[in-house]
Design goal:
The protein is an alpha/beta fold. The protein has two domains: 16-29 and 270-397, Aspartate Aminotransferase, domain 1, CATH 3.90.1150.10; 31-267, Type I PLP-dependent aspartate aminotransferase-like (Major domain) (Aspartate Aminotransferase, domain 2, 3-Layer(aba) Sandwich). The protein has helices at residues 3-18, 31-37, 59-76, 88-99, 125-129, 146-156, 174-183, 196-200, 237-248, 254-267, 270-292, 318-327, 355-359, 364-378, 384-397, and strands at residues 20-21, 48-49, 52-53, 80-82, 105-108, 131-134, 160-163, 187-191, 213-217, 228-232, 296-297, 306-310, 330-331, 333-335, 349-353. Helix 5 links the parallel strand 5 and strand 6. Helix 2 (31-37) runs antiparallel to helix 10 (254-267), helix 6 runs parallel beside helix 7 (174-183) and helix 11 runs parallel beside helix 14. It starts with a helix and ends in a 6-residue tail after the last helix. It binds pyridoxal-5'-phosphate (PLP).
Amino acid sequence: MDINFQEILNKEKLRQNNSIVLIASENYASKSVREAQGSIFTNKYAEGYPGERYYGGCEYVDQIEELAIDRAKELFGAEHVNVQPHSGAQANMAVYSATFDSQDIIMSLPLDHGGHLTHGSKVNFSGKFYNFKHYNVDRESEQIDYDALHSQAKIINPKAILSGFTAYPREIDFEKINFICKDTDSLMIVDMAHISGLIAAKLHSDCVKYADIVTSTTHKTLRGPRGGLILSKNKFSKKIDKSVFPGMQGGPMMHTIAAKAVAFQEASSQNFIKYQKLVLSNAKLLAEKLAREDLRIVTGDTDTHMILVDVSNYGITGKFAEDKLNNAGIIVNRNTIPYDTKPPRVCSGIRIGTAAISSRGMDSEAINIISECIVDILKQRKDQEIVKSRIVKLAQKHPINLD
Ligand SMILES: *Cc1c(COP(=O)(O)O)cnc(C)c1O
């Protein structure tokens, strides 16, 4: 036995078990998902696609990849699916490379308004190699102003409009975005990384039926293994597949694809819908509770698993809030709020998500405790160790299956 490995793993188990994860992009994959990802499919090279591999011995990995593809098609109602991207970022990279040349204009929401790094940030490949022009959220409502987006798109005349975000707590109106894309003759590309679980459960407006191409991660609200996914209309299938392999990647991670197949099955169950309903009701309740304590909820509310909280009312920064909460066992990340006046390392906000705690079966009773603890820490009105022991107790009452 590798004692060093075991020791670190045990520490991480303890950490996961005893803390409350409110990071909006994290979740707990089921034991079945983790078993599939830890399976012997990791031993197999399978460059290519089912039926057209560049290696022998692929008869069963072909079956597992086809199973994953069929289940994803069924779950999301997609025409074409590629399950090979190693991550969300790589799914986006493959889509851009399949669809754009460096001159084409792509409209997206910038990082500091809730977009992702891969949506044209200057420090990312997307901003370096592609020509992104940004739309913004409205200064007042802090939400997408669809009319403004429409007018801007008419002027800019982009090749594509990218939607789907990383720090945007409200429902996205994909029907409206589709209308704007049609009217301006732009491709509709959606990155549903954060909301794919809600969409699978039909608790968020659907983008797959409207968009030309949809990318996703599989490990956020969808609760699968860490990985990426591309869904598209048939007419983009060849370009996308070629772009993923041989364009961007070598051998697919067949163990992860096996785990994706398991996760897609789980996500099509009644239990999963029940779970996503809990995710939503927990987020609503937590937003309400925090608002009652004078914390400003960005956009005033949430329709998703995510809440953006402006902590500046308390005279503190997002960085300070993140550190203090983390020390008390409440794990969140700092986040810029729209039109933030503080630099990104400091930020005025924190991002909170309920996907992980809901997987532990936490409901309104736990939300009451969590919200009290958050305020106790941020107002510095209770000793950190007292709050921490309350958090550990709550966490232990809702164990995660980590075996
Ligand atoms: C998380 C996220 C990604 C990137 O996923 P990784 O697997 O971390 O590369 C891409 N786009 C959006 C909108 C995301 O939220």
